[in-house]
Amino acid sequence: QVQLVESGGGLVQAGGSLRLSCTASGRTFSSRAMGWFRQAPGKERDIVAAITWSGGLTYYTDSVKGRFTISRDNAKNTVYLQMNSLRREDTAVYYCACRSEDGAVVVPTTARGYDYWGQGTQVTVSS
After folding, report:
1. Mean pLDDT per segment of 10 residues, for the chain of length 127 residues?
2. Which pLDDT value is given to residue 105?
3. Nearest Cα residue to 119 out of 37, 18, 10
4. What pLDDT score does 67 carry?
5. How many angstroms separate the CA atoms of 75 and 97, rounded?
6. Which residues contact 74 (CB under 8 A, 6 or more apart)?
7. Which residue, among 38, 19, 17, has the nearest Cα to 85 in the 3D structure?
8. From its phi and psi, is residue 90 left (phi > 0), alpha (psi between -120 and 50) or beta?
9. Which strands, in side-by-side order, build the sheet including 68-73?
10. What value, to the nearest 5°, has the Cα angle with vertex 41 and ends 47 and 23?
11. pLDDT for res 1
């Protein structure tokens, strides 16, 4: 079992920045791919970014490329999402997710590819 706890959400003005953190329990965090997803009201949960266990491969959805950065610190069992130049359309609940497969060299880009989820953290961007 892996438990994930997100933090760092909040209210920010358009153009501002936030850094989300997701801390995982368990010793196997360092061998697993992680992802950040978001879900706006009335919409599906969509991927934002993902990272392999080593950090050697990352994925970003087109709308956040150049603005968001995913990273991880395996010594701290934590994955981060640095969000810059935030826009109103980034408003959503953000979830981190963990794939159960150890050592995967690819990152799943759909929710079905992940097995453990955090409770979510709200990000609201005002104009």
Report:
1. 94 98 87 95 96 93 98 95 98 96 86 96 97
2. 81
3. 37
4. 98
5. 18
6. 29, 30, 53
7. 17
8. alpha
9. 4-7, 18-24, 78-83, 68-73
10. 45
11. 81
